[in-house]
Amino acid sequence: MPVDLYYVPGSAPCRTVLLAAKALNVDLNLKLVDLHHGEHLKPEYLKLNPQHTVPTLVDDGFSIWESRAIITYLANKYGKGSSLYPEEPKARAMVDQRLYFDIGTLYQRFSDYFYPQVFGGAPADKEKLAKVEDALKLLDLFLEGQKFAAGPSLTLADLSLVASVSSMEASDINFTKYNNIKRWYETVQRTAPSYEEANGKGLQAFKELVKNMMKK
């Protein structure tokens, strides 16, 4: 049975899943969801995901959404023994912590700051920007003396974080002023399997979307 991924190319969470699938050698049957025309609100999609979000993964009848839940599921099922999601409890806890930091702090604060500007025409909020900068300072601290976000090896944490951080290229946020983040970002770009295909192309689509939306 194919592993179906319902996705939007520019979405950072969708790019996270694409990166993880490439790293785990999982072939995905990609199903584009047209949000503009409400495909995510149709009964057949709501049956798969009542929260009507992307990405949504369907594997042999099992449906799961939220990108970080998806990638840990893929690693648990298809990547046993992989260093991407180590089985040693402390090492795995570190990966999980970074994933939770991404969804609850870094990506959340970026979304809260930038998406109202893109999709709602709101002005930039300096207080929200300051919170993004605080999150970046934390990430920079996490990376002090470490090659990757959760230790010496590439893990799912890096793949999730790099999708979030790279999205900031479409904004006025300069994450490269943080030396550890800049070094890490360049390292992940070089080492994540099929980075350009899995993240680079979608990032360009996101940048084009932002450019077009900000013109309105």
UniProtKB/TrEMBL annotation:
Homodimer. CDD domains: GST_C_Delta_Epsilon (cd03177), GST_N_Delta_Epsilon (cd03045). This is Glutathione transferase. It comes from Diatraea saccharalis (sugarcane borer). Residues 1-82 form the GST N-terminal domain. One of its GO terms (biological process) is glutathione metabolic process. One of its GO terms (molecular function) is glutathione transferase activity. Residues 88-209 form the GST C-terminal domain. Transmembrane segments: none annotated. InterPro entries: Glutathione-S-Trfase_C-like, Glutathione-S-Trfase_C_sf, Glutathione_S-Trfase, Glutathione_S-Trfase_N, GST_C, Thioredoxin-like_sf.
